[in-house]
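Re: your question from the hallway

Yes, I did run it. Sequences:
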Amino acid sequence: MAEERTESRHDHGSAGALDAAGVRKLARLARLAVTDADIEPEAVRLSAVLGAMDVLREAVAREDEPEHVTPMAHAGDETNRMRADAPGEALSNETLMAMAPETLAPFVRVPKVIGEGGGA
Amino acid sequence: MTRSAVEIAGGVRTGKASAREAVRASLDAIAARDGELSAFTQVFADEAMQRASAIDEAVAKGEDPGPLAGVPIAVKDNICTTLGRTTCASRFLEDYRSPFDATAVERLLAAGAVIVGKTNMDEFAMGSSGEHSCFERAKNPWAPGRVTGGSSSGSAAAVAAGMVSIALGSDTGGSIRQPASHCGVVGLKPSYGAVSRWGLVAFASSLDQIGPMTRTVEDAALALSVIAGVDPRDATSSARSIDALPLQREDVVRVGVPRGLLESADERVCAAVAEAEAALRGAGVEIVDIELRHADAGVAAYYVIAPAEASSNLARFDGVRYGRRAELAPGEGLEELYVKSRTEGFGAEVRRRILLGTHVLSSGYHDAYYVTAQRVRGLIKRDYDRAFAGEVAGEDGCAAVLLPAAPGPAFVAGAKSQDPMAMYLEDAFTVGANLAGLPGITLPVRTVEDDGDTLPIGVQLIGAAFDDARLLSVAVKLETALGWGARTA
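Structure:
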């Protein structure tokens, strides 16, 4: 998919305002639909939330050397845990297929991907 | 069902009481009040009684069913069980049946527990009131017009109403500890990595933890001792031991209070913190003021990181392999299948957080939002590390930090449902422990009167990572000093 941006790249989230077009783009990226009636109220709500994110920059800026504050991705202390490359117990094909909403044994059935309908 | 899990299991293991009697009492309590409270999404009466009979028979044969023998337990409906459905309170998964049990559930069952039902929640654990459920919202047993808090709304209500003595919840930003405060129960979020997340439907993987909700600290410790431990199926679970039991009651401790943070809490919450401070002092604990300099940015960091992870985790719900699949019109294809299934299946708050997460990860905004939030996350963790290491609280550091669990008492249903930011601020005191990976526990302190309702208010203690045992020792000291008891609503 071509790169899509949700608002002016130069804004970098300052004040965080999102307009209706921005919400539509986000919805397309997230594979969601937002109705015309919902789009403006949702833009207002999301903008209010994004506006509250300014404290993040302020918190980092309060540090003596903000450029040296390391991003923290997770709190876990487990790194590079490996397991034996050996077959183990697995759910059966029948069990997994029983969860699928539509099947055409032995496959999960999906709409036509190539041709009409667009898609991936 | 007002007995503790410790009492029930003790009676069943020694043959002085029966599992059938304990499970019957639980089912009777559910039948009496769940029509009003909607704490459960499903109740497994027949299966629970059969399992109770099997446990009683095992005891009669001289076998020991385990430390939770015959204890009726409720499981939040985002934790996979082969029994019944695992709905996450979402239309997307309303008919979903898991082909496996979560590791935490496996361990509870191996310890002799009896699952009586799955509990209501905010959809996919996204919410702080229980109102974002595709089912009827769970009601606060203290005042049904009020919210339970969330997202572990049904688990909190079930324990508070005396339906079970232990319910599993999950806590990504406070979803165990905040409803525990609103419902007057004990809620424990273990250290990140202490309990396997295998079988917990993922919301924000770097923050999610399963934990128990109970009426006593001892029951929380008992449940944690059963569910904790490394699991090869969850690479983030830790081999570090927790040793939750036996509770260490004699530890002399110092507790820090981030005084500056209290300014944003309701005065009745501040009074509860003051009462807890006084109780701890009376028990010989030294109270010191500490500063958590970056805590004011916790909610902002959380509401960048959690939606970012959620937008990725929830991409798996596409209508293809499991869950809801939308009906397509002629000519519609795979793209429409994704969009229609997700739009029909997810509720408004889940869709909002996916949009938010998509935005903060999108090109041009990733650094401004996501990476900055990760930097703040590191600063928040550093603040706590300093408190525990003693840099700001004397030579030995603090055994725990005492702070509110929620900014006020349980609010009236609907009061915050149209204002996401107001709802997100419910998590102001709880997100720090998730961001830093620390254990936290809420326990009830007092009741207050609010518009004619009598409502509980709890306080929260946060401990150092993998020092859950010491946190529990502080908690039991506070519980004893407060004398709340194990009261039900």
